[in-house]
Design brief:
binds zinc ion, Nucleotidyltransferase, domain 5, 5-stranded mixed sheet, 501 residues, elongated
C-alpha cells in the first residue's frame, strides 16, 4: 500500500503496522539540511537522531500514531551561542506537541462547540481518544480573534457562582455573539471598558441603575434601551407576587373546578347529617395548631449567629453577604432583627379544606394518607397527625364503597398560573381552562392584574410607545403595579426605547 499521498511532505515511510485498534507508522525526515533557529545559518553536520511520537488523524476509526525520526545538527557558526539544534517541521507540528497540527484542529473545534467532557466522549468514539482535561487545555489555548468594537452592544450580568461572584457579559447585538466578559458587575469596570472602546451607538441593558449610570458617564450619546426580556421578567414578577397574596382565592377556584368524580352509579354510604357539625371559628381551633419549636442547632440559627457576629465586628450588609455567600436580603433581615429568629406556632389551614374533606368522606374516601396527599396538592400546610385527629370525629363507613378512583387534582403555583395566562387559551388543557376561566371570571382583582399584564405585552409587540404612557397611568391606580410603574418612570427613556427600537 502506498501511503505517501497521506503522509507529511519531506518524510519517508520506513514501516507501518496495522493493529486491531491502532495503526503505527514510522517515518524518517528526508531533509538533510537544517537551519539554526538562532543564527539562521544552514547546517548539514549531523549530531544524532532522535524520535518523536505524534498522533495523527484516525483512519477508519483506528487511531494513528507516527513515530518520526529526526536529526540533530551541529551549528558550525563560531559566533552563534547554540552548538546543537533539532530538526523541526513547523508546517506539521509545533515543538513539544503530542499531535500533528491537522489532528489538533478538529479537537479544538469539537471542544469549543460541545464542552470538554462531551468532546472527550465524541473523540473516543471516532478513534482519537483524548482526556477531557487535555481538551480543556486545548480550548484555553485557542487564540482570541481580534474583535472590532460593535456599534450596538448588549450588557448583562451573569453568575460565575450563584450568590457569590457575578460578572458582566458584553454581546455584539449585530453578530449575536459575546465579545467580552468583565470580572465583576460594578459600574466602574463597565465604564472603563466603554472608554477603551469608543464608537458605541446603542446599548441594551437590564434595569439596574449601576449599568445605566456607567453608560451615561462613559458614552453619553449612546441610546440606552431597557432590555425587553428583563422588562417582561419584571412584569411576571409583579403578577406572581400579586398571585402569592391571593392564595385563598386561587384555592377556592381550584376547589370549585375540581374534576367531578362519577358517583351517580353508587349509593353514598353516609349522609351529611351523620357527620359531626362543621368546624367554625367558635369551635376550638387549637387542635389545628402546627407547633414548631426554636431549634438552636438549626442551620438558619447558625447562619443568623454568623451574620450577627460580623455585624458586631462592624462589617456592612454587602460585605457580610459576599463573605458568607448569603443572599443580601437574608443578611438584611438578620441585620435588622435584634433577637433570635423565633418561629411562632402557626395555625394550620385545614379549615379551608373542610368542605372538600366532607365531600370526599361522603364519597367514601376515608384513607387519611390519601386524603393528606390530596389536600397537600391544594396547599394544606399541616401534618398527618392534625388531619388524623380531625378526622377521628368522623364516623367510620359501614360498607366498603365501590367508587371509581378519584382523579388527581391539580395544584398551581403562582408562576404556573402566570405562565398559563400568557399562553393562548387554545393551549390550555380542559382542567386548566375550567380553572383559569373560573379564576378570571370570579375574581375581579386577578382579572384586572392579568389584563394589564396582557396589555403591556401587546403594546411591546406593537412597538407602541404612545400606548405605554397611557398604560402607566392606568396601571398606577392598581396597587400591585405601583412599584413597577415607579421603576418604569425612573428609567423612562430606556424603557420607551424598548417600545420603539
Ligand atoms: Zn547557530
Amino acid at each position: 500500500m502506498d501511503l505517501s499521498p497521506i503522509l507529511p511532505d519531506h518524510f519517508q515511510l520506513i514501516e507501518h503496522c496495522v493493529g486491531e485498534n491502532a495503526i503505527q507508522i514510522s517515518l524518517l525526515a528526508t531533509q538533510t539540511v537544517g537551519r539554526c533557529p538562532d543564527c539562521q545559518r544552514p547546517a548539514n553536520k549531523v549530531h544524532s537522531f532522535y524520535q518523536r511520537t505524534l498522533t495523527d488523524l484516525p483512519i477508519c476509526g483506528k487511531s494513528v500514531s507516527l513515530r518520526i525520526h529526526l536529526r540533530k545538527f551541529f551549528c558550525r557558526n563560531d559566533q552563534c551561542a547554540r552548538k546543537i539544534f533539532a530538526q523541526t517541521a513547523p508546517a506539521y507540528f509545533s515543538p513539544y506537541a503530542r499531535r500533528l497540527n491537522r489532528a489538533q484542529q478538529p479537537l479544538q473545534t469539537i471542544a469549543l462547540q460541545t464542552g470538554a467532557r462531551p468532546a472527550a466522549r465524541i473523540c473516543a468514539l471516532i478513534g482519537q481518544p483524548v482526556s477531557h482535561s487535555t481538551l480543556l487545555r486545548i480550548s484555553h489555548r485557542t487564540p482570541v480573534q481580534n474583535q472590532t468594537t460593535p456599534t450596538r452592544l448588549g450588557v448583562d450580568d451573569f453568575a460565575f457562582r450563584k450568590g457569590r461572584r457575578y460578572g458582566t457579559i458584553l454581546i455584539d447585538l449585530d453578530r449575536h455573539q459575546p465579545i467580552d466578559v468583565l470580572p465583576d458587575r460594578e459600574g466602574k469596570t463597565l465604564e472603563a471598558w466603554l472608554r477603551e472602546h469608543p464608537g458605541i451607538e446603542l446599548v441594551t441593558r437590564d434595569r439596574s441603575s449601576v449599568y445605566a449610570n456607567a453608560i451615561t458617564t462613559a458614552c453619553p450619546n449612546a441610546i440606552q434601551v431597557a432590555d425587553r426580556w428583563h422588562l417582561l421578567a419584571n412584569l411576571s414578577e409583579v403578577v406572581e407576587r400579586f398571585l402569592d397574596t391571593q392564595r385563598d382565592t386561587i384555592n377556592q377556584s381550584i376547589l370549585a373546578t375540581l374534576p367531578a368524580t362519577d358517583i351517580s352509579t353508587t349509593t353514598l354510604p353516609l349522609s351529611e347529617e351523620q357527620l359531626p357539625p362543621s368546624l367554625t371559628w367558635h369551635n376550638d381551633l387549637s387542635k389545628l395548631m402546627v407547633t414548631t419549636q426554636v431549634d438552636c442547632t438549626s442551620k438558619s440559627y447558625e447562619r443568623y449567629q454568623k451574620v450577627k457576629q460580623l455585624q458586631a465586628e462592624g462589617h456592612g450588609i454587602r460585605a457580610i453577604a459576599r463573605h458568607l455567600g448569603f443572599a443580601r436580603n437574608t443578611v438584611k433581615r438578620y441585620w435588622h432583627q435584634g433577637f433570635v429568629p423565633r418561629q411562632t406556632p402557626k395555625r394550620s389551614n385545614l379549615y379551608l379544606y373542610e368542605g372538600y374533606l366532607r365531600k370526599r368522606w361522603l364519597e367514601g374516601q376515608t384513607n387519611v394518607k390519601e386524603l393528606l396527599a390530596e389536600l397537600k396538592a391544594f396547599g394544606y400546610n399541616g401534618s398527618y397527625t392534625i388531619l388524623a385527629n380531625f378526622l377521628s370525629a368522623y364516623p367510620p363507613l359501614e360498607v366498603e364503597p365501590d367508587l371509581p378512583p378519584a382523579r388527581k387534582a391539580n395544584s398551581y403555583s403562582s408562576r404556573q398560573i402566570d405562565r398559563l395566562l400568557n399562553q393562548p387559551p387554545a393551549k390550555w388543557s380542559a382542567d386548566e381552562e375550567a380553572f383559569l376561566t373560573h379564576l378570571l371570571s370570579e375574581h375581579e382583582s386577578i382579572r384586572q392584574v392579568h389584563d394589564l399584564s396582557e396589555q403591556f405585552r401587546q403594546l411591546m409587540k406593537e412597538k407602541s410607545a404612545k400606548g405605554l404612557a397611557k398604560w402607566c397611568e392606568d396601571a398606577e391606580k392598581v396597587s400591585a403595579y405601583a412599584g413597577f410603574v415607579r421603576g418604569l418612570r425612573q428609567d423612562y427613556g430606556a424603557v420607551e426605547q424598548a417600545f420603539i427600537s
